[in-house]
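Researcher: Going back to the complex we discussed earlier. I've cleaned up the inputs and rechecked each line, so this should be the final set. Can you rerun the prediction on the complete assembly and write out the structure?
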Amino acid sequence: MNKSLNEYYVDVLLPLALEGTFSYSVPTPLVERIAKGQRVEVIFGTSKLYGALVYKVHQNKPKYKKIKAILNIIDEKPIINEQQFTYWEWIASYYMCSLGLVMQAALPSHYLLSSDAYAFLQTDNDLLEEALSLEEEIIYRALRKDEFVKTHDLKKLLGKKSILGLLRAMTEKKWIRTSHHIQKTYKSKTQKFIRLHPSLDDDQLSNIYEIDLRRAAKQQEALLAIIEASESQKEIARTSLAHIKSNILKALEEKNIIVFIDRVVSRIETEEPTKKVNFSGVKIDPKQQKKIKNLLKKDAVQLLNDAELIPYLYAINKKYQPGEQTLILIPNIDFEHEALTIIQNEYANDFIFQNSKQGNDVRYEIWDKVQKDVRFIIGTRSSLFLPFKNLKHILLLQEHDPAYKQFDPSPRYHARDAAIILAHQLKAKICLFSNTPSFESLLNNHQKKYLSLQKAESNNLGNEIELIDLQKAAKQRALDGSFSKKLTKEIATALEQNAQVIIIKNRRGYAPVLICKNCDWKASCPNCDVKLTYHQFSKKFICHYCDYKARYIPTCKECQSTDLELKGFGTQKLEEELELIFPMAKIHRVDSDTASGRKRFQIIQEKFLAKKIDILVGTQLAAKMINASSLKLIAFVSGDQMINRPDFRSEEKAFQYIQSLLEKKGAQTKVLIQSWNPEQAFYHSIKGSDYYNFAFKRMRERQLFHYPPFVRMIHLTLKHKEKSIAERAAHLMVVFLKKKWGDRIQGPITPSIERMFGRYHVDVVIKHEKQRDKMEGIKKSIYEANLFLTKQSDLKSVRISINVDPQ
DNA sequence: AGCACGCCGACT
DNA sequence: GTCGGCGTGCTC
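Model: Rerun complete. Updated structure for the full complex:
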């Protein structure tokens, strides 16, 4: 095939948040080598270079005036295969976002290349003799110091928003020049190894040891260690000789007794397994085993309870064929499970742990290894995009966990649903695990779309909960701030027994707020409709929505009074109350202020386990210590906050959460919930019935009132700086969509937080039947409505974000 | 996303 | 008068 007879073009995806593809021409010498799935280097805009992904190679001349040519082919072989593109297309179309954004979610950032502009000197003359402006002088000195300087760094150096004009002027005077370079950021990790000098034989070595080194005891000692280690492996990691000082080794190197070698090592391969746990050591109920064996013959999605996870793994392990891969999806990085421990120990060199917090270089190595061969991949939702070589099984743990749904940035995909599609496309088997399945999965199971749910056994744990009626307590004057007398008594009893207590309050604004003593004004964010909270750790007032930070706020914005005070709310207030009631107790607070970051949380956790804390007060983070053996009491100060959120799923999620705690807690731990209204149906359910009873009762209500899982939902949020414009846009959107879809469209709705990032939000909610044609029709209408809005001259700058299947 | 172009107020 | 602020629109 001779491709070079005609002109070729490529449509590429750029690593930018842009809709659609862009077309470039392919220079003849590159035509033979180009293919879909490779990255190419292109100029986009004035001078910036990007690594763009080839989405289509074709011969149809695009009808644009200016068609640039690709500069370069970056990958000799495609890095994305046809199946991955098909998967991306599904995500983009189902969740209504551009392919470019899917690409950004899918690729390790190392693959998303964009250039930096550099400046360098163009003249040898000493410019300080010229009439330089102050800014020019700063730039000149910076360039004289380092040969190439990023223009971005120069911008920071000058503290200006734009230095483009300045640089251009200096370029015109032929003082400097600028150029663009794509940075290849991957750096392999190297490790120092030591080996005996290859020219030495045993006799020579013993000679050296006895004669040459007779007066260097330390060197003798080191050589002996190296010789010993050399018996099992030729090259010895420097780290395994940590006890030997560097100067000793250096001396041996200089005497040509040993050599140093730099080896490229993997960041992801773990050391040898710490302890052997064998699947064969796991007791498996033969009935269970038979059931799972039968399940594995069928193709449908399966839904099982947690107790069936290890038998399931055992079963697929038994049928394992070399090269097969298993993906185990977990809701978040910290998720721990016995089954994962078994895999990590058993297959230490054949499993990968992946999550979105890993550094670029690690992700790059993971990508590489998954492509080659690795048996188990344990990871969070972004692992769905890995380039699997031969994926045979997907296991999704804690199926009901809302963390599986991505919110920002787009694509707002749900890992459970996306995993089911992936399994279908790859003809892999998929099994969801949960003791408290989401209503969505229960319905699918009920309608026999899924197979074989067996209720988890120890399900009726609710009767271990004790409710405290705050209304009654208030009437009896048995209420002390946030605490009922009953609760403080229970805490006191626990403390007397030298046991530990956890107090939980679900409240977002946990840190203190700045309040005006004169007029009750509270410091709020200039961009969002929320109060600023004070963070002790950074000593700053912070907005949780837009990350606005202020060092200090001197006066009240209402009455200009300077008489301001920090007042604790949420968990901090609880902590203060507890300190008054139990002055002798060791009380510690845990929330994202005191425990931001994993390390700080771990420190608190260790302290708690070492019994250096009597009472732990906090948000749901605190509940992670639920399995501590000396935990006597866990109490929810206000259970109502958990279930009365403005979200139709709040009771479902609360039940799932409380049940997971009940399952994890020890027998000695008591659970107390304070409520102003303990007669609410929810409390009856959680105390009296098992999850399935509760779920089916609530699902009937959802069906009656047309809520998921019986209908599908799409949320539209329209955002604009001007409230009236956002409202008008939302109104027009509703009118437009109602014409075709009638009652399925609801809104405009003002959300509970009206303003965020300096923009007013107005919502439109769509509820529609679970039929494919309806779904596609509505999505088409949304695109049309979008187009219609952008044609209204005053609404052009209204931003619309779309959330399909919101959580 | 970044950059150009165009329109406004505050300053040598 | 100009410099530089931001709002808007375009990039193959």
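Model: Worth noting: Chain A has 25 helices and 36 strands.
Researcher: Good, that matches what I expected from the previous run.
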